[in-house]
Amino acid sequence: MISFISPDGEEREERWPSVAAFLAWARVQRAAYPFTAYEQDEDGDWVVVEKGRTSGLGPASGS
C-alpha cells in the first residue's frame, strides 16, 4: 500500500506491487509525490517500509 499526495493536493492510497513500480509510474508522470509505503506484518498491521518524495523528473515527452 502506498499513500501519496497528488500535485492537486489530494491524498490517495493505492495498492502497488512494489515501491519500485510506484516510483517508475511517478517518473513517467513527471510530478513530485510525497509518499509513504506500507506492508502488512504477520499480525496484519500496516508497517512503514519507506518514506520519501519522487523527484518529478522523468523522460521528456516525444523523446
Topology readout:
Layout: E1 2-5, E2 11-14, H1 19-29, E3 34-40, E4 46-53
Antiparallel strand pairs: 1-2, 1-3, 3-4
Task: Please write the string of helix (H) and strand (E) elements.
Answer: EEHEE
The gross shape turns out to be elongated
Number of strands: 4
Arithmetic mean of pLDDT? 89
Walkthrough of the structure:
- The chain is an alpha+beta fold and 63 residues long.
- It has one domain (2-53).
- Helix content is 17%, strand content 37%.
- The chain contains one helix and four strands, in the order ββαββ.
- A four-stranded antiparallel sheet has the order 2-1-3-4, with no helix packed on it.
- A hairpin with a 5-residue loop joins strand 1 and strand 2 (11-14).
- The termini are far apart.
- The model has no long low-confidence stretch (mean pLDDT 89).
Give a summary of the structure in a few sentences:
The chain has 63 residues and is α+β, with helices and mostly antiparallel strands.
Features:
four-stranded antiparallel β-sheet, 63 residues, 1 helix, 4 strands, single chain, alpha+beta
